[in-house]
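Q&A FORM
Asked by: J.P.
Topic: structure of N-acetyl-gamma-glutamyl-phosphate reductase

PROVIDED:
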Amino acid sequence: MTTVSIVNVTGYTGLELLRLLAQHPEFVVTSVTGRSAVGQRLLDVFPQVQTLSSPGAGPRPMPIDPALAITEEPAQTELAFVCLPHAAAAESVVRLLERGIKVVDLSADFRLHDAKVYEEWYAHTHPAPALLESSIYGLPERYREQIRTASLVANPGCNATTTILGLLPIYAAGLAEREVITDVKAALSGAGRGLKLASLYAEANEDVTAYSVTGHRHLPEVTQEVVLAAQAGGHALEQPLRMTFFTHLVPMTRGIFVTSYIELKTDAHLTTEDVQDLYRKYYADEPFVHVVKQPPHTRWTYGSNHCFIYPIIDQRTNRLIVMSCLDNMGKGASGQAIQNANLMYGLPETTGLFPLGVNP
Ligand SMILES: NC(=O)C1=CN([C@@H]2O[C@H](COP(=O)(O)OP(=O)(O)OC[C@H]3O[C@@H](n4cnc5c(N)ncnc54)[C@H](OP(=O)(O)O)[C@@H]3O)[C@@H](O)[C@H]2O)C=CC1
Ligand SMILES: CC(=O)N[C@@H](CCC(=O)OP(=O)(O)O)C(=O)O
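REPLIED BY: S.T.
REPLY: Here is the structure written out as tokens.
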């Protein structure tokens, strides 16, 4: 058994971690924090957790104690999941590492390798640049081995994960030009649990709009990882990636659907069968990435850690069109955080993660 903290449990990703950890056979939640609920019990703030003490609930008699006190600072545990906004997250991560606690950080604070790029996109000085060297980008499909021995894993952004998984195979194979346009449709829970006008039911229901139109913060993260994947595949890009990354808000609770339009090398001459084959081989051993033969649905991913990808060729333009989707709370955040923690503790990567999404 490994003791874990959720810092904080009062946000969406923290709550989703609580749900996933309630049926994890190896991790035990012994500490939860919550800025707005210090001094209260889990049960007081989230009455639904009383199910955890029902007879026969979960794999253990009491996977998480519903009467666990919500504190300001986490108690001593072996591992902590940090679910705070950027900047606040980095400050917490520094304190946790000093106490010898391993960390999976769900914020953006340790994803970018270059502190200058971070400062440009997040508009403040990086609170702990020295840690950028040792933090590992928590995408198991790329960094599985490094994650196993890491003390600090930077869990990727949700839009970034969906996009990167759709781009890795073609850039690693050196078949794509540097021009790519990515269109993201993102669910409301991605914006977090705090009150925001755009997230109100009457504003968001029956509505689609665009956001971050002057540049989304996940662009540098995606660019960093695509460039590194091309290099790792022996096909370093000759010129910087030229990417338009454009996000839309859609009236769903969970889910991200990404469509990327990629300029192919003029001599590539690929068919849809070729790219399906290429993608299937690239992800052949991946438990959570599935290449499918029809447009996927976010509904397939709801409540799960799975990502579905559908690559096709637009013969008229010699462009590759890749559709990819996942649950932003799952593979886009808390599910991927558990996948990373499983690796850090030598467990099978799929431990405690649901094999099938919720449908309908
Ligand atoms: N939602 C998503 O789909 C994804 C989110 N992420 C990232 O994960 C992290 C958590 O996201 P999410 O759970 O959605 O966020 P929420 O807005 O739902 O929750 C944020 C949490 O942080 C606490 N908090 C807010 N501001 C501060 C502050 N200044 N100092 C200390 N604590 C603070 C809140 O406490 P309280 O409410 O008790 O005051 C709450 O517990 C963020 O960095 C986010 O960018 C990453 C991938 C996907
Ligand atoms: C709908 C919505 O607002 N989604 C968020 C997703 C945030 C996310 O993935 O988190 P990080 O800030 O940790 O990168 C966004 O696009 O900014």
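FOLLOW-UP: The chain has a mean pLDDT of 96.
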